[in-house]
Amino acid sequence: MRSAYFTFKGQTSLYVFVAVLFLVGVIFGALMVNALSLEQRQDLEGYLGNFFMTVQHSGQVVETGTYWDIAMLHLKWVGLIFILGLSVIGLPGILVLDFLKGVLIGFTVGYLVGQYSWKGLLFALVSVAPHNLFVIPVLLICSVSAMTFSLYIIRNRVLMQRTPGRQKPFASYMVLTLVMAALLLGVASFETWVTPAMMRWVTPMLLPA
Fold it and tell me: From the record, what ranges are coiled-coil (predicted)?
């Protein structure tokens, strides 16, 4: 426990940096909504309108994907971060992924709120927020872990500042990634079976009277 505490304390600056980068991505994504052309707005509005109508009349959420589709999407994200952390050149890629994740969430929520006002915000709260309350911290933890291991490689391979027990950091890095992946499997089950039910509850509010 003390080891975990001191490890977190030593990585505080990395956590702050990654969190700020993610938030910048969210803001950037929300601002991107204003850059959409009229044609793009109409296409998105038409797609969402058809989506809401299908949900309303069929009582089902279309194209949410199966459990393993959703799980694999999360695992691929974590796996990519893990792979990037194994190399020196992968360090910038980790930062790009964190920024991109923020952009995707910011754009989604920004468009829903801009298009449907408080109803869009309510839909975002039930469709985007619940699982991302777990996904985002997991990705940030994986990112910091990957950055830490990448910096460890730089010190030992590039700067030749070799330290004993080189296998221990890799083992810790691997175990942490596996634990985070297991958590995402649980999140995927929530996203598969609980989120669609909440979406069906809110969707009628978004349809024209």
Answer: none
pTM (2 d.p.): 0.87
Residues of the chain with pLDDT under 70: 1-10, 55-65, 158-167, 209
34 belongs to a structural domain: no
Q: Does residue 153 lie within any of the structural domains? A: yes
| Count of beta carbons in the 10 Å neighbourhood of residue 7 | 12
Distance CA 55, CA 82 (A): 37
* Residue in this structure with the two tokens 């991302």, named with its chain if needed: 132
Residue 146 in domain: yes
Burial of 2 (0-12, 13-18, 19+ CB in 10 A): exposed
How far is residue 12 from each of residues 56, 92, 159, measured CA to CA in Å? 46, 19, 23
**Based on the structure, what is the number of domains in the chain?**
1
